[in-house]
């Protein structure tokens, strides 16, 4: 379990480890989809130092605008 | 002349002194992006970068800035690397008129060497990294994506080959941003109206000619592969995908095959864009990857994108200007001289034209707004006389400063469409647009004092010749 630097959820998971053992891991947050490498500067990896303008509130995510909107299913199209 | 594949082009860059290999160890972040940003700050003749010693990786090889300068753009077209930009523009326009050149089909390709269909993990297979500090993740930003029109699958030109940013959001998942002005948005809508997934294929590490065609604002039913053939002067080589009826570039390093999941939207971004601003985070479609194949020891290509100018601007400068030039020439064949739509993908366009009568230049500007590319770009159109070189900005500024009267020559058209990434659009996707007429007024538009334009002293041409010989 890791804290996501961007949305601060605690659900992030390791998606890969460096081919050279012990250099870094890549983590992915399933809430806001943020991805980071553990060897990045702490302005990226540390929730306290992550730039406030880029923080994401998990409650806003379900309300994010759909681009493009999902169209109606059109009967008879195939 | 065609390049055999991506590696063939890299060899040419190396031979021409336009490839810089960095063998010192670099960190994936922030070094890869920082080195590229620094290079983009160093002028318009810079080399491509080749990194072969990246911290934590054993054998990752990454090429960047492959088309990030005018010499590299000239080499893409097989021209001498010091070819002036204006000459590259007119040669590109000449080849554009050779369209279409039918493709050459192959049964197998070098990328069939290694194939992965189980336990796919894009983070293991691709050396991914962050570009700008506010980016929401790691992106594929110079991959081409192929998809087909579902209503008319047999019209070859409606198969689309486009360049879209794709965020890697899971071991086999990508996010894609389909701007409504781009063709992929049409294909996604067709599939979602049927409640079906849209099959797609993604190619990484391609020869620069298909990347150029993929980033050219062609008409919807014009084939990027047939345009690539026109630009390189011989048929473009393609091979079929395995999971769908899609054509792939034969010379690619890596292929991902998958599908856009119908009805799914997932948080994507922000991403530092060509506008020099981040895109913001929105819910966008998702691509699931089902199959990957690649060459042994593949070379991965990425590009740095951000505040202009970056590789993107060299890549889409000439090839954005030429379709506008051709479409304006369709309307005004005897007047249009050249078009420079190189600034921020054509948000600004400069058109050089002859004028037939008073008010003519403004009509040329209005036509630019209604071209297919103009619908999403061309927020500011500057029209200049035939003797002003639109690629020479000091000349354009001279025309603006002396020919333009704000009362008569600034036209604002309200409430038009623009790509939603324009950070000034409000709401996103809507904007006013402006035409600045910096041409000399002619009858019946009689105004100003333009009867005594400056000429040159006698004998300038002879002196130019003489001095250039002395300076050799
Ligand atoms: Zn998060």
From TrEMBL, chain B:
Q: Name one GO cellular component term.
A: cytosol
Looking at the record, the residues that make up the 3-octaprenyl-4-hydroxybenzoate carboxy-lyase-like N-terminal domain are: 11-87
Gene Ontology terms, MF aspect? 4-hydroxy-3-polyprenylbenzoate decarboxylase activity; 4-hydroxybenzoate decarboxylase activity; metal ion binding
- What are the names of the required cofactors? Mn(2+); prenylated FMN
Catalytic activity reads: 4-hydroxybenzoate + H(+) = phenol + CO2
Tell me which residues bind prenylated FMN: 160-165, 181-182
Presence of keyword Plastid: no
Q: Which residues bind Mn(2+)?
A: 160, 182, 224
Q: Name the Enzyme Commission number(s) assigned to this protein.
A: 4.1.1.-
Which Pfam family, an example, fits this chain? UbiD_C
Cross-referenced PANTHER family, in alphabetical order?
3-OCTAPRENYL-4-HYDROXYBENZOATE CARBOXY-LYASE-RELATED, FERULIC ACID DECARBOXYLASE 1
What name has this protein been given in UniProt? Phenolic acid decarboxylase
């Amino acid at each position: 379990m890791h804290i996501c630097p961007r949305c601060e959820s605690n659900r992030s998971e390791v998606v890969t480890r460096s081919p050279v053992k012990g250099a870094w891991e890549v983590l992915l947050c399933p809430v806001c989809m943020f991805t980071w490498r553990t060897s990045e500067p702490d302005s990226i990896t540390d929730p306290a130092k992550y730039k406030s303008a880029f923080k994401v509130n998990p409650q806003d995510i379900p309300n994010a605008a759909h681009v493009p909107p999902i169209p109606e299913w059109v009967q008879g199209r195939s | 002349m065609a390049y055999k594949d991506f590696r063939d082009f890299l060899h040419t860059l190396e031979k021409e002194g336009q490839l810089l290999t960095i063998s010192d160890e670099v960190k994936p972040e922030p070094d890869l992006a920082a080195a590229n940003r620094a290079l983009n700050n160093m002028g318009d003749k810079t080399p491509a970068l080749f990194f072969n010693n990246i911290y934590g990786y054993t054998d990752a090889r990454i090429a960047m800035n492959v088309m990030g300068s005018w010499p590299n753009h000239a080499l893409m077209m097989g021209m001498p690397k010091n070819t002036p930009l204006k000459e590259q523009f007119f040669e590109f326009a000449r080849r554009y008129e050779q369209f279409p050149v039918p493709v050459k089909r192959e049964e197998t390709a070098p990328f069939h060497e290694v194939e992965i269909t189980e336990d796919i993990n894009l983070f293991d297979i691709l050396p991914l990294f962050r570009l700008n500090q506010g980016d929401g993740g790691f992106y594929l930003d110079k991959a081409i994506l192929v998809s087909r029109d579902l209503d008319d699958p047999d019209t070859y030109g409606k198969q689309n080959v486009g360049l879209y940013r794709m965020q890697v959001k899971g071991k086999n998942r990508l996010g894609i941003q389909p701007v409504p002005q781009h063709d992929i948005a049409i294909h996604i809508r067709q599939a979602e109206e049927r409640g079906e997934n849209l099959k797609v294929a993604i190619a990484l590490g391609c020869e620069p000619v298909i990347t150029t065609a993929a980033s050219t604002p062609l008409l919807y039913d014009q084939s990027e592969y047939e345009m690539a053939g026109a630009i390189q002067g011989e048929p473009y080589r393609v091979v079929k995908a395995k999971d769908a009826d899609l054509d792939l570039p034969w010379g690619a390093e890596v292929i991902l095959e998958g599908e856009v999941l119908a009805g799914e939207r997932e948080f994507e971004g922000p991403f530092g864009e060509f506008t020099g601003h981040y895109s913001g985070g929105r819910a966008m479609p998702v691509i699931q990857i089902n199959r990957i194949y690649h060459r042994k020891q593949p070379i991965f290509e990425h590009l740095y994108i951000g505040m202009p100018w970056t590789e993107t601007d060299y890549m889409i400068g000439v090839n954005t200007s030429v379709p506008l030039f051709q479409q304006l020439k369709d309307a005004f064949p005897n007047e249009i001289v050249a078009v420079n739509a190189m600034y921020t993908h054509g948000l600004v366009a400069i058109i050089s034209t002859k004028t037939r009568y008073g008010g003519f230049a403004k009509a040329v500007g209005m036509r630019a707004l209604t071209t297919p590319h103009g619908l999403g770009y061309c927020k500011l159109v500057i029209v200049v006389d035939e003797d002003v070189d639109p690629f020479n900005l000091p000349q354009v500024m001279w025309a603006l400063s002396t020919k333009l009267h704000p009362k008569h020559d600034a036209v604002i058209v309200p409430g038009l469409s623009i790509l939603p990434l324009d950070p000034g659009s409000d709401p996103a996707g809507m904007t006013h647009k402006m035409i600045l007429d910096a041409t000399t007024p002619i009858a019946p538009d009689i105004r100003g004092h333009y009867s005594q334009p400056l000429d040159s002293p006698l004998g300038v041409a002879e002196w130019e010749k003489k001095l250039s010989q002395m300076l050799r």
